[in-house]
User: Which sequence fits this backbone?
């Protein structure tokens, strides 16, 4: 389930063969820093970008694309190990000792309905801002400048078509929903590991941990609920009628409008205490998901099951 990575290889890992690395690349171009005099070489290797510095080299790109024709086929533990073995053979040093700087973890699901229909059902989540700029793309990202963590949902087929990539025949005209988490920098803090190397990625315990984080992140997202058809029969008081009405309005509304309203409140500094925004968001979520007037949407049930099934095949 790994995709794009960025890794750093200290020169000591490469050893005496370091000066010859550029010879193993498909293309290479040398530059000299006029200010410092440092010689740098930039090149590519089967779709991976390689930057060679005096202290070491960085490798950035999609491991699935490196191992397979395209990243439409995600990597599991076994194929991740194979990708690093291939990379080590190409560059003639043990790349699985490289320090992982950033990584993407995710896969795609073959759904029964258009991808945009499922994205419409995904609401807010804690500590990340919801962003929906296109019908087929939804992401949640941290508010800081560094954007250390981003959760993406998008239509994989349409994304591949935009890049001019040939879609495997089995996926042509399909509803292929891609869900991935992108971790950018400070991985030891985000993933609570002392160090993450290429070898770590195929470790069983670490892989299981990544799958759990992946699953937990999805289920932490609030989902649009469906108001029960028999909810009218359960109304006994004015308060219950109010809850049914508000739950119906929230679940039938455009989720972008709710996000925009919360942003407008913050921009106008309506509340002196920042906790009030969190309380309001929770109150809306509680009303929208009241167990006695709503039930899980059929589309969400389908997507829930797809994410749950990931854990079975670890």
Assistant:
């Amino acid at each position: 389930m790994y995709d794009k990575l960025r890794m750093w290889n200290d020169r000591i890992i490469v050893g005496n063969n370091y000066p010859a690395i550029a010879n193993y690349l498909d293309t290479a171009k040398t530059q000299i820093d006029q200010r410092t005099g440092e010689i740098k070489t930039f090149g590519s290797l089967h779709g991976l970008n390689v930057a060679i510095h005096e202290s070491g080299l960085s490798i950035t790109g999609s491991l699935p694309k490196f191992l397979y024709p395209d990243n439409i086929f995600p990597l599991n533990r076994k194929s991740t190990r194979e990708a690093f073995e291939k990379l080590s053979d190409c560059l003639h040093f043990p790349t699985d000792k490289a320090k992982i700087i950033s990584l993407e973890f995710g896969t795609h699901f073959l759904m029964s309905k258009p991808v945009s229909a499922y994205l419409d059902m995904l609401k807010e989540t804690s500590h990340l801002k919801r962003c929906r700029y296109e019908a087929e793309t939804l992401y949640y990202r941290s508010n800081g400048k560094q954007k250390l963590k981003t959760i993406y949902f998008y239509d994989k087929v349409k994304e591949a078509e935009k890049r001019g990539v040939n879609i495997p025949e089995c996926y042509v005209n399909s509803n292929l929903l891609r869900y991935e988490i992108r971790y950018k920098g400070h991985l030891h803090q985000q993933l609570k590991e002392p160090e993450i190397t290429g070898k770590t990625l195929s470790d069983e315990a670490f892989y299981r941990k990544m799958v759990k984080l992946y699953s937990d992140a999805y289920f932490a997202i609030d989902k649009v609920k469906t108001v029960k058809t028999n909810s009218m029969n359960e109304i006994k008081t004015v308060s219950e009628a109010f809850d049914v009405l508000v739950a119906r309005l929230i679940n039938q509304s455009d989720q972008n409008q709710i996000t925009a309203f919360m942003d407008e409140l913050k921009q106008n500094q309506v509340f002196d205490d920042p906790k009030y925004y969190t309380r309001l968001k929770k109150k809306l979520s509680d009303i929208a998901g009241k167990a006695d007037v709503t039930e899980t949407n059929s589309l969400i049930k389908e997507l829930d099951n797809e994410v749950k099934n990931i854990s079975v095949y670890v």
